[in-house]
Design a protein that fits this description.
Blueprint lengths: L20 E7 L4 H12 L5 E4 L3 E5 L4 H4 L3 H16 L2 E7 L2 H17 L8 E3 L4 H8 L12 H9 L5 H6 L2 H8 L1 H11 L15 E12 L2 H21 L2 E12 L4 E12 L2 H15 L6 E9 L2 E2 L11 H20 L14
Parallel strand pairs: 4-5
Antiparallel strand pairs: 1-3, 1-4, 2-3, 6-9, 7-8, 7-9, 7-10
Length: 353
């Protein structure tokens, strides 16, 4: 079955597509130079590599299977060995017939690594291509586990008893359309059946950028976590403005001492690269988690939906404080450009751990 855009469906309509998509998640998150090297390493296996900065990538290895004489899972092991040998960076790899399933498989592999104390057996997870295996893999997954389904949509589905991918897949499309609207319902219904028409797009322009702060020890103090978020938001704001881009959304990922993670995303009021706006959104995401005495190992921010700053609009205000902060930000950027990025920093800046 061929879907609009050239993608191929994996699910009840299609029998037995061979897994050929790798979703590779590097950890710990590499720096920009190392990340580019890791992308080059993936390019040695297949030219069809899509960067998902700051710490992941998609690779379509369909054309490399015969050349290497291995299946996709075998190529995933080769990638793992090479990243460790050359860069000292480990990775978790999901292997499946499309990017949606590969991403979900990688997440499951990461959870397995945490449960097993990062043993090797949890590093690669493969979802077979036959429809029964796909259905079994998805059956008990909650709606929030489907990439693209946010907390609000997941709560709406669960309120109607659609609290698993199997129940969503079994629900009539017309019912989902009444709950979610036509366009969203079609996407979620397809995802719940393991169908993803999106191809792996080589050399795709960056749609996101991110940064992570790892604490020297498990952090219990919310004030230090907020200082880390300020540091990350400031750095991302500088990178956005330097590259002439603005972000439409921001995501916060909190990693705990037991290796579990929580990720929350917020759409910004308007696309922006303004550091105070990014910082305020990051603080709001952090405060909404209500972490209390949680032992936090690291926090990461990711700005998404990047577009050209020249195409973005800014809602003018009569607030002199907003105008002043933007003038100060522009002056600080000029100082950084002349004297280096460390020339101007927020008062609460944290050094990299």
């Amino acid at each position: 079955m061929v879907l609009p855009g050239g993608g191929r469906a994996v699910g009840p309509e299609r029998a037995g597509e061979v897994p050929h998509v790798l979703y590779v998640r590097f950890h710990p998150a590499p720096g920009e130079d190392v990340y580019q090297g890791l992308l080059t390493l993936l390019g040695e296996v297949t030219p069809v590599v899509e960067a998902l900065p700051p710490d992941a990538a998609l690779a379509d290895v369909r054309g490399a299977l015969r050349y290497f004489g291995r299946d996709a899972a075998g190529l995933a092991e080769i990638v793992r060995v090479r990243t460790l040998a050359r860069y000292g960076v480990d990775c978790t790899v999901g292997v499946a017939a499309n990017p949606l399933l590969a991403r979900m498989a990688a997440h499951e592999a990461q959870e397995a690594r945490g449960a097993q104390g990062a043993q090797e057996s949890g590093a690669v997870r493969t979802v077979p291509g036959d429809p029964d295996a796909v259905a079994a893999f998805l059956a008990r997954k909650p709606p929030i586990a489907l990439p693209g389904v946010g907390p609000a949509t997941a709560r709406t589905l669960s309120a109607y008893g659609l609290d698993s991918a199997a129940r969503i897949a079994a629900a009539p499309l017309s019912t989902l359309q009444r709950i979610l609207g036509a366009a969203t319902a079609r996407r979620v219904h397809a995802w719940a059946r393991g169908i993803d028409p999106a191809p792996v797009t080589p050399n795709a322009p960056a749609r996101a950028m991110g940064a992570e702060h790892r604490f020297r020890r498990d952090e219990l103090d919310p004030a230090r976590r907020r200082r880390a978020l300020l540091t990350l938001a400031d750095g991302l704001g500088v990178r956005l403005r330097t590259s002439g881009q603005v972000a439409a959304a921001i995501s916060l990922t909190v990693r705990y001492a037991d290796r579990s993670t929580t990720t929350r995303t917020r759409t910004l009021t308007e696309p922006t690269a303004h550091t105070p706006a990014l910082t305020a959104a990051a603080y709001a995401l952090h405060d909404a988690l209500g972490l209390q005495r949680a032992r936090v190992r690291s926090v990461a921010l990711r700005v998404e939906g990047l577009t050209d700053a020249g195409l973005a609009s800014h809602q003018l205000t009569f607030d002199p404080a907003d105008e002043k902060s933007r003038r100060l930000e522009a002056a600080a950027d000029r100082a950084r450009a002349r004297f280096g990025v460390s020339a101007v920093r927020p008062a609460g800046f944290l050094d990299v751990a």
